What does this fold into?
Amino acid sequence: MSMKELLALHNRVADKPAGPKTFATRAKLVARIKQVAADKNLDLASFGQPKKPKATAQHAEPKAEATETPEATEKKPQGKGIGALARAILMDPAGHPHALIAEMVNVQIKGAAATAKSVRWYANDMRKKGVEVPPRQKHHPADMDEEQSAEALRTVRVVEPAPSDG
It folds into this structure.
């Protein structure tokens, strides 16, 4: 019986009618109907009341079947692998900038919409979990303007060539 039918049955047998929000669960409603019927010596079979709630019997069987079949316990692949690819590229010692990693992910995975911000999130998440992520370059050399390029070249030292043994 549906919850609505059980509530109608309760209101027929009980002294005080109940509303739709009176009982939190179907089991509580069935228990109350049984209690009222026992107090008044009523036969619930004449009202069409099932002896057990249908939901209880149905839930017990599928759980047993699910644990028996190995196919049911296998996990389905989730997502497109964007996070896994981004994390792998983040671990590259070259230290690619977040924007470049996002572009690399978008090119390799169809339908991906990775951004520099999402790649930064993956890096931060890895650090929170104790993974030591290699440091990033601030900008990719191809993305630098003239001023940024001049700033980057200030740190470059010229090394004299070694004398040849010739």
Summary: The two ends are 100 Å apart (CA to CA). Residues 26-40 form the longest helix (15 residues).
